[in-house]
Structure formats: structure tokens, C-alpha cells
Amino acid sequence: MNAPDETTAESNVNGEPLASCGTDPETGVQRDGVCHALPERDPGRHEVCAVMTERFLEFTDVMGNDLRTPRPELSFPGLEPGDRWCVCLPRWLEALDARAAPPVVLEATNESVLDEVSLETLEANAHGTE
User: Fold this and answer.
1) What is the value of pTM for the model shown?
2) Which residues contact 118 (CB under 8 A, 6 or more apart)?
3) pLDDT for the residue numbered 124
4) Where in this protein does the record put region Disordered (predicted)?
5) How far apart are CA 6 and CA 71, in angstroms?
């Protein structure tokens, strides 16, 4: 169950209440639009809210994760450039190294990612700064 106060209990990378990443398509491990940090339910760490780009979609497909093809059995609609999606922190970091990282929506990216990536790196890759 996802009580409304669960969303406000989590913070974004700026230390403010965690905003919704997106509802069209509905993202997040709980498909409630929020990039929750739920280590016991989400070992993939879908905590980075990113705006999909063609380059990232190509990169992740080559890495073995096709994000374009709908998978209704997994409540996955398939993505296209411009969609906002909670992506896995490890994949985002791989894409960063390959210069294919999608821009990050800071207000909707969970502060938990700061254990692996600096705020400065996230800010340098923030949506609206590319």
C-alpha cells in the first residue's frame, strides 16, 4: 500500500520533498509516478528520474534492456524520447561513463542516489541544462 505520506517522507537530491517523476507513462517501482528508494523491493534502484533521449534508449538496448518495446505483463508501456522514467542508478552511471546519460530531473530524483553519485554530477546533467 502506498500511503500519501510515504511520498512526502522521502526527499530529493536537493533535500526537498520528493516530487513525482511522471504519470504518463506512470513510472516508479510502485507505478505511482515516484522514484522511491525501496532497497528490499527494488534491488535495481529505480531512483533516478530521467528524461529519455534517443541516445540513452539506444545505449540501454545495446546493454540488454529494451525500454522501447511495451511489456504489458510487467505494466511497462514502452518509452520514447521525452518520456520521464525512474531509471536504475547503476544503468544511469554506466550511461554517464559512455556519454549517453539522459538528463536528470533533480526534484524527482531520490536523495538516496547521493551514496553513489555527487550532487555536482547530477546538477551538471540536470534536465534544462543540456
Assistant:
1) 0.89
2) none
3) 97
4) 1-29
5) 27
